[in-house]
Amino acid sequence: QVQLVESGGGLVQPGGSLRLSCAASGFTFSEYAVNWYRRAPGKEREWVAQIFASGRSTSYTASVRGRFTISRDNDKNTVYLQMSSLKYEDTAVYYCNAKGNWGQGTQVTVSS
């Protein structure tokens, strides 16, 4: 069965960086686009970034463009989200999504 496992979240100060990982199994990972989403406290889930199967094409929501970078390693069945210049408003649970499936999420808290 499809399994997505996020990791790498934590507590970071404003302006800091984190790298999230999404490890996938149970499907042919290299054939599917992967998306990152986030849900901030009291808000709806928000799409953050997408990477196509080949890894050559990416897109971002405007609020993270230039600060976040999505990448993938198809040999490791893993997608990454490098987050830099983090802001208070980036605090959320971050989820990856592929092939219509969701991971359990990883908490990112930006706080001084």
Task: Give the topology, please.
Elements: E1 3-7, E2 10-12, E3 18-25, E4 34-39, E5 45-51, E6 58-60, E7 68-73, E8 78-83, E9 92-98, E10 101-102, E11 106-110
Parallel strand pairs: 2-11
Antiparallel strand pairs: 1-3, 3-8, 4-5, 4-9, 5-6, 7-8, 9-10, 9-11
Architecture overview:
The chain contains no helices and eleven strands. It is an all-beta fold and about 110 residues long. Strands 2, 4, 5, 6, 9, 10 and 11 form a seven-stranded mixed beta sheet that branches.
Kindly list the characteristics that best describe this protein.
seven-stranded mixed sheet, four-stranded antiparallel sheet, 11 strands
Biggest sheet layout: 7 strands, mixed
Summarize the amount of helix as a percent range. under 10%
Low-confidence stretches: none
Rounded to an integer in angstroms, the radius of gyration calculated over CA atoms is 13 Å
SS-based structural class? Answer: mainly beta
Please summarize what this structure is.
With 112 residues, the chain is mainly beta. The chain has no helices and 11 strands. The strands form 2 sheets. Strands 2, 4, 5, 6, 9, 10 and 11 form a 7-stranded mixed sheet that branches. The protein has a 4-stranded antiparallel sheet with strand order 1-3-8-7, with no helix packed on it.
